Amino acid sequence: MRATLLISFILLLNFQGFSQEPSEASYTLDEAIAFALENNYSVLNADRDLIDAQKQKWEVIASGLPQITGSITYNNQLKQPVTQIPAEFFGGEPGTFQEVVFGQAQSATATATLRQQIFDGSYIVGVQASRAFISFSQNNKEKTDLEVRKAVVEAYGNVLLSQESIAIVERNKATVEKNLYETQKLFENGLTEEEDVEQLQITLANIESQLKNTKRFEKITLQLLNIVMGIDIDNPTKLAEDLDQLAQKQIDFGLLETDFNIENNVDFKLVTNLNEQRFYELKLSKSRALPTLNAFVNYGASAFSDNFDFLNSDQQWFNSSVLGFDLSIPIFSSLGRSASTQRAKIAYEKAKTELKETKQQIRLGLERAQSDYQFTIEQYNTAKENLDLAGRIEKKNQIKYSEGLASSFELRQAQIQLYAAQDEYLNSMVSVINAKVILETILNNE
């Protein structure tokens, strides 16, 4: 009985464990980035691509190392061929023939062959190119990490933006509801016009619609952040940072003075890899005009029988072995190899031109990123000042309206101005965060 109760208790615990809601975790921006670099789907596949590149390198190297193959052949001549031999060989009459069957009906052969490549120009180029391919995979992994980091920053900022927007809109809604309630009472007592009530009703309706949309946007941005981090889309992830504090942390004027080494830029690394690839393709095309030399040694054994007796211990096997070399010399290809080499040379020249263009584009991108980053900081400071001004103006109009010194239209205009300043301030903070990560991605300094 006790054993039954214990088993039931364990099963209940297991059931409860499997039926728990997704774990709720809180992340700072740096923690979210670190988590994504371990669990993001693109990062995981980039890691696999790097491992695949290493396996491809060994695959190329192994093709030039000793190769051993074995084979077993079994033949059963259901109808053996008949050969006619002059009968006089067997003491018969001249001019007549004797039908003769050579050999036995069944045979088996087992062979093993060792082949070794001695010289092949394409093999040498292939080994060199495989190293370049690993470098490309490593740089592609680095680019993936940078793109994931950028995506996390943008998604994290958008979640904070939506959450902060909800808080602000709810405060605005409470203020307008209070104004509307007081204005309705004044209208019922004949102390104000119906238009004042309608103006506030319009404002409240717009705020309620904006609040619903912002809440939907919060859900979408949170789901996007989960996807970027490699978490289940419905996981209740929490953010541990405040938008304003995070924006202030991203303000770093020293970043504008950072020395730029273009060789650190991942796009420059990738286009350099492309040049290496085109260079080795040209070498490979030229190497096809070189001879190839291989050596091989073969060892085998054959057996013959009228019946299937090959597995018997007394079956006689006849050994054979061959040592040889094969030399292949390209002589004439009707200018096919020449055309292939010229095409590879054109591709290499195009890659070198693309490298020059990429350098210029990266430098231009750096200038633009620095300018955008500085502008977003300036815009953030301006938006913060404008928000303070708009808040004071709206507050003054609230007082004037309550004292009958301002119309509902003037109050509504002040409120609209305040809401616009709030949106501009929130967006300016996100812009600072995003502009910094773009600049850091281009600099790519350790």
Structural class designation: alpha+beta
* Number of helices, where a helix is a run of at least 4 consecutive DSSP H or I residues: 9
| Count of distinct strands | 8
SSE arrangement, N to C? HEHHEEEEHHEHHEEHH
Name the overall outline: elongated
Strand content: 5-15%
**What are the low-pLDDT stretches, counting only 5+ consecutive residues below 50?**
1-22
Largest sheet: 4 strands, antiparallel
| Estimated radius of gyration | 40 Å
The separation of the N and C termini measures: 64 Å
Question: Would you tell me the overall average pLDDT?
Answer: 88
Helix percentage range? 55-70%
Question: Spatial order of the strands in the main sheet?
Answer: 2-5-7-8
How would you describe this protein?
The structure is a single chain. The chain is α+β, with helices and mostly antiparallel strands. Helix content is 64%, strand content 14%. The protein contains nine helices and eight strands. The chain has helices spanning 2-18, 29-39, 41-62, 121-188, 194-229, 243-249, 266-287, 336-402, 408-443; strands at residues 26-27, 67-76, 83-86, 97-100, 106-119, 238-239, 292-305, 318-328. The strands form three sheets. The chain has a four-stranded antiparallel β-sheet, with no helix packed on it. It has a two-stranded parallel sheet with strand order 1-6.
